[in-house]
Design goal:
Keywords: Electron transport, Heme, Iron, Metal-binding, Repeat, Signal, Transport, WD repeat. The protein folds into 2 domains: 279 residues, Methylamine Dehydrogenase, Chain H; 121 residues, Cytochrome Bc1 Complex, Chain D, domain 2, CATH 1.10.760.10. It is built from 7 helices and 28 strands. A hairpin with a 5-residue loop joins strand 22 and strand 23. Helix 3 crosses helix 7 and helix 5 packs across helix 7. The site of heme C has 26 residues, from helix 4 and helix 5.
């Protein structure tokens, strides 16, 4: 009973599985980390680290250039930057120094490891005793991962080589993989015996650590820029340069979800929430987006419930295509609405904003006195939700062509009419 009560108090406001955003950074989001207690840390191009409790940020300032990655260690937090330093928070004291950008960080019980474009891997004991460098490897290092007991370290970099190191001697044990293209990201899951890597040429592969066999999840998108494993190890998320997030079910080894997460630019940062229900993502936008995994239908399911996905978008008339590409990931057109991040748009014309029963709107939208008409929907995407209704939960996006907006409105009229669906 006691433990349960405590657990309930500790659950942060954002633990519920719903779509939310974290706003406040002044530049793209390059890295995200989550702590078991629900805190989220974001590393940004704006030189700061955001340490979030709920949707409130505590800004950690000190880096002199873009911050690329963050990692929690109990109450402490480590960050690495284009300013060549590893910093430890609170305080922001320099805990490690390289001769080039630092783009990756990993923790064991005793050490912090840093991946640097100076070609070396820094090993920084957390008790402040003497550090040492592994390498040089001859190429920029992008990613590092410790074995669970901290005795071994994997590294990968621009030369496409995945290396295994002995931490105590600092010696390279072997080259595990030689991929022809640079490897950007690795995720080690020793408990289940595999390591996942994502590369510049768009390759996503899962290496069986015992047999050396590989499973391939490569799609036609590149480069792979972010990988994240859920705390229960059942989901592996992959973010790419074209703005998609693919979620792999690691027990069935199939693609469970695959969706376009940003309409603009790459997915640079991914992390699962502590409860594993949400996937947090960062990219060009100054905002971190978080989707409940269960609200995202897998492609096959979408085809059943959302007719537009049965067709090739290129074969659709323009208004339907606009909807399929830009809205359907979050909005249904049917009365039931499904489990989507946004409210169903069924019967939207003439409906006052924020009034669909049962949907949890932002206060901003509820309190607005907008009524949805041709004009207001047109304005919403002419100006972008962030300008038209600042503070709404709707992600920032604009449809710049007037004809595209007009076609979308025409399509919505047809697809959301109450009579059409009786
Ligand atoms: C990433 C998810 C996402 C995408 C993509 C998205 N929306 Fe939304 N939309 C939302 C959310 C969340 C809300 C609720 C906003 C709030 O409560 O502040 C919303 C609200 C709305 C509303 C107001 C509904 C009401 O009941 O008041 C309209 C209209 C709307 N969206 C239209 C669209 C159209 C048209 C597109 C495509 C051009 C689109 N949205 C794309 C998430 C999305």
């Amino acid at each position: 009973m006691r433990a349960l009560a405590l657990a309930m108090i500790l659950l942060p406001a954002t633990a519920a599985a719903e779509f939310f955003t974290l706003k406040g950074h002044g530049g793209p989001i390059m890295g995200i980390a989550t702590a078991p207690d629900g805190r989220i840390a974001t590393a940004s191009f704006d030189n700061s680290v955001g340490l979030w409790t709920g949707t409130q940020a505590n800004w950690l300032e000190g880096h002199e250039a873009a911050v690329n990655a963050v990692a929690f260690n109990g109450t402490a937090l480590y960050s690495v930057s284009d300013d060549f330093t590893l910093r430890r928070w609170p305080g922001g004291g320099i805990a490690g120094q390289h001769k080039g950008k630092i783009v990756g960080v990993a923790l064991s019980e005793t050490h912090v490891a840093t991946a640097s474009w100076d070609g070396t891997i820094g090993l920084w004991p957390q008790d402040g005793t003497t550090s040492h460098l592994l390498g040089p490897t001859g190429a920029g290092v992008n990613a590092v991962a410790f074995s669970a007991d901290g005795s071994h370290l994997y590294s990968a970099g621009m030369d496409g080589v995945l290396r295994l190191w002995d931490v105590s001697s600092g010696q390279e044990i072997r080259q595990v993989i030689r991929h022809g293209f640079g490897i950007n990201e690795i995720v080690l899951n020793e408990s289940d015996g595999w390591l996942a890597y994502g590369a510049v040429d768009g390759v996503t592969r899962i290496l069986d650590l015992e047999t050396g066999a590989e499973r391939d999840f490569t799609l036609d998108r590149r480069p792979i820029l972010a990988l994240a494993l859920s705390p229960d190890r059942r989901h592996l998320a992959v973010g790419d340069g074209e703005g998609y997030i693919m979620v792999i079910d690691t027990s069935a080894w199939r693609i469970a979800r695959d969706f376009r997460a940003t309409l603009n630019g790459p997915v640079w940062a991914l992390a699962f929430s502590a409860d594993g229900k949400n996937i947090h993502a960062g990219g060009i936008a100054d905002t971190m987006y978080s989707w409940p995994i269960d609200s995202l239908d897998e492609h096959g399911k979408m085809a059943e419930t959302d007719r537009s996905f049965l067709k090739d978008p290129d074969q659709m008339e323009n208004g339907e295509r606009q909807f399929a590409r830009k809205c359907s990931i979050c909005h249904a057109l049917t009365p039931e609405g499904g489990r989507k991040a946004g409210p169903t748009l069924f019967g939207i014309f003439g409906r006052p904003a924020g009034t669909l029963p049962g949907y949890l709107y932002s206060d901003t939208l509820k309190e607005s006195d907008i009524v949805w008409t041709d004009e207001t929907i047109n304005l919403l995407f002419d100006l972008g939700p962030d300008h038209y209704i600042p503070g709404s939960k709707m992600p920032m996006q604009r449809i710049t062509e007037a004809q595209d907006r007009a076609d979308l409105v025409t399509y919505l009229h047809r697809a959301t009419q109450v009579e059409n669906q009786k």
